[in-house]
Amino acid sequence: MGERSAVAEGLRAYRLIAGMWVRSSMTYRASFVVTVFGNLTVTGLDFVGILLMFSQVDSLGGWSLPEVAFLYGLSVTSFGIADLALGSMDVLGARMRDGSFDTLLVRPAPVLAQVGADRFALRRLGRITQGAVVLGWALVSVDVDWSAAKVLLVPVMVVSGAAIFSAVFVAGAAFQIYAQDAAEVQNAFTYGGTTLLQYPPSVFGKDLVRGVTFMLPLAFVNWVPAAHVLGRPYPVGLPGWAAFASPLVAVACCVLAGLAWRTGLRSYRSTGS
């Protein structure tokens, strides 16, 4: 009961803080629209790069353009949702250096909710929109014999992928507490992870594919379930049921990230600023 109450309190605090930042950003609506459009354009350059590659080749690692677009759309949309919700976690190190993190510890609200909602930026909707557009095009262009299970698997992948990326954000923030910063290390696994997943696993070495399957299970964002949808071989010879394991992997990642966050908070020592 206490745990449920703490979650509800955290969600309420997150909603109030995020709402404050949304109202602030909407004060200058023209600037907001320009910023969202700029964000959409910048993130879209990633897919432009893929299009340029396919202007020179017919396939990438044996995958066609619609299949790669399917991976890209899933990765970018899932990451965009997590980035919208928790993208401010990477400034935690700066907060610890200037002493403002200590202020969050004494406020009557869960620290994770405060850090996650800090500087909540609706401009990040541009990334989600761009990823969703590419995903939509891929869904109508890819050569797939659709079944009810495969159709249902698409939204499951997006939600589970967002949860997995969110867990990586939280775990990265916990690591920043231990390391007293290391934001770039966190970005390597978050922004670097979504870039990695935009390409088929067949273009990477087997050791790297094993690492993002069993150590940091980002492969369950799209590689593994997408292999089932597209009728492709599973990475590293996983069993057939693994395609439907993304929700379980997401729950496990969130639980582990929560434990890491709690442990990090307990070990935190004030800068004395």
From TrEMBL:
UniProtKB keywords: Membrane, Transmembrane, Transmembrane helix
InterPro entries linked: ABC-2_transporter-like
TM stretches of this protein: 30-57, 69-87, 128-146, 152-175, 208-226, 238-261
Pfam families reported for this sequence: ABC2_membrane_6
UniProt name for this protein: ABC transporter permease
Native source organism of the sequence: Streptomyces massasporeus
